[in-house]
Amino acid sequence: MVLPIYNLIWMPAVLEAAGLKVAETPGWRSRGRAEMGTVRGVMCHHTATAAPGNMPTLKTLINGRSDLPGPLAQLGLGRDGTFYVIAAGRANHAGAGYWEGIKYGNSSFIGIEAENSGLANDPWPDIQMDAYHRGVAALLAHIGADAGKCCGHKEYALPKGRKPDPSFDMPTFRSSVAAFLSGKTPEPPIPAKDEQDRPTLRRGDSGALVAALQRALEIDDDGKFGPGTEKAVRAAQRKAGLVPDGIVGPKSWAALNPPLTASTSALASAPASGPAPQAQTVAMAALPVAGAASLPIADDANHPVVVRGGIAFGPGGQRFASRLSQGFYTLGLRPPPPGWGGHRRQACLVPLLALLPQHARTKADSKP
Ligand SMILES: [Zn+2]
C-alpha cells in the first residue's frame, strides 16, 4: 500500500530556518485524518497534562485517546522549545468553533500542542514561550498570514467556554508574534554566559567544560553534550526547583556549581564547542597589549581570533583568551606547564604569533 504524503511537509524546514529545534516523529509525512484544506492560520493549545518531562504527551498526540483518534495536532512543543513534528495532514485538535471567518478548524489551522498543565504551579519556561512565538511567526509568514490568524483554542471554541487553553493571554502572545513577523527579534531569553564567564551549554556542545558539567552530574564525562547529558541536566534542574529545560544557563550553573580545574577555568572564557584540549599541553602564548590591538590571529584549529581592546575574542564574539598578568594574555585553552609559575612563567612568554602553528601564522600574516 502506498501511503499518502500530506501537504504540510514544509513545516520542519520553515521552523529550522527560524532557528528552532525540530524533532521529526517517524511517519509524520503520511500521518493525518485527511489532507488539509487551505491553511489559513495557526491554533495554540496546551496539553493540560501534569506529567513531568519535556514532551510526555507525544505518544497521545500521535495516536489519540480512546474518545478521539489521532493525530491530535500537527506539532508538539516541548518544554525546552523543541518542535515535535507529528503530522503533515489534518489533525483532530479544533472541534467546533469560529475565528476570523473560519469555521472548519481542523482543515484550516495548524494545531500546536505545547506541553503545559495549564495550572498555576506550571509556569511556562522562557525558552518554550520564545519558541512558541518564533514558531507561530515562521508558520504564518510561510502561508502569508498575519498575527491575527493565530488564535487560541479558547478563543475559537464554541460554545464559548468549551476550552480553556492555552493558559496565557492571546493578545499579548499575538503582539510578540507580530514583532517577529515585522522583523524585530527580541534578545534570546537565556544569557550566553553567567557572571563567571561560563557559557550557556546545551545539546550539541562539547569540550572540557561539558566534561566538568558531566562530572558534576555524576555521569560519563566524555565531553559531549548529547541526549543522555540533557536528560541528566533536566533531572538535576527538577531537583533544584528550576525549569527542566535541559539547558545549562546561569541558574543551572549556580545550582550545579561543578568544581573547575585549571584547564576548565581557562575554558570558561573560551568557545563552548570544539575539541577538548589535549592532556599534555603546554604551549603558553602571550602578547603584549600594545601593538596587538587589532591583530587578526587564529587558534590552532584555524578559528579566527581577534584582539580588541586587549582582549581576544573567538569567532562567535566570545572571550577567547584570559588575562594572565599585566599586559599578557594566555591563548585560550592551554594551561601553563606544571610548575611554571611566577616570573619563570613570565619568562616563557613569547609573542603569540611565534607559537601559532604555521597555517595560522600564514593566515594572520596575510591579513592587513
Ligand atoms: Zn486545545
Task: Chart the SSEs and their pairings.
Elements lengths: L10 H7 L3 E4 L16 E6 L11 H6 E2 L2 E2 L5 E3 L4 E4 L19 H4 E6 L11 H18 L6 E3 H4 L13 H12 L26 H9 L10 H13 L10 H7 L5 H7 L27 E3 L5 E5 L2 E3 L8 E4 L2 E3 L11 H6 L4 H4 L2 H8 L3
Parallel strand pairs: 1-6, 2-7, 2-8, 5-7
Antiparallel strand pairs: 3-4, 5-6, 9-10, 10-11, 12-13
The structure holds zinc ion (ZN).
Descriptors:
368 residues, alpha/beta, Lysozyme-like, Muramoyl-pentapeptide Carboxypeptidase, domain 1, 3 domains, six-stranded mixed beta sheet, three-stranded antiparallel beta sheet, 13 strands, 29% helix, disordered C terminus, binds zinc ion
Description:
The chain has 3 domains: 175 residues, Peptidoglycan recognition protein-like (Lysozyme-like, 3-Layer(aba) Sandwich), CATH 3.40.80; 61 residues, Muramoyl-pentapeptide Carboxypeptidase, domain 1 (Orthogonal Bundle); 70 residues, no CATH class. It has 368 residues and is of the alpha/beta class. It contains 13 helices and 13 strands. The strands form 4 sheets. Strands 1-6-5-7-2-8 form a 6-stranded mixed beta sheet. The longest helix has 18 residues. A hairpin with a 5-residue loop joins β9 and β10. The site of zinc ion has 4 residues, from loops.
The fourth-level CATH homologous superfamily of the largest domain is: Peptidoglycan recognition protein-like
The helical percent reads 25-40%
Class by SSE composition: alpha/beta
Tally of separate helices: 13
Q: Which shape, going by the Cα principal axes? A: globular
Task: From the 3D structure, determine the CATH topology of the largest domain.
Answer: Lysozyme-like
User: What topology, given as strand order, has the largest sheet?
Assistant: 1-6-5-7-2-8
Instruction: Show unreliable segments.
Output: 261-316, 318-368
Biggest sheet character: 6 strands, mixed
Q: What percentage of amino acids are in beta strands?
A: 5-15%
Q: Any idea what the radius of gyration is? A: 25 Å
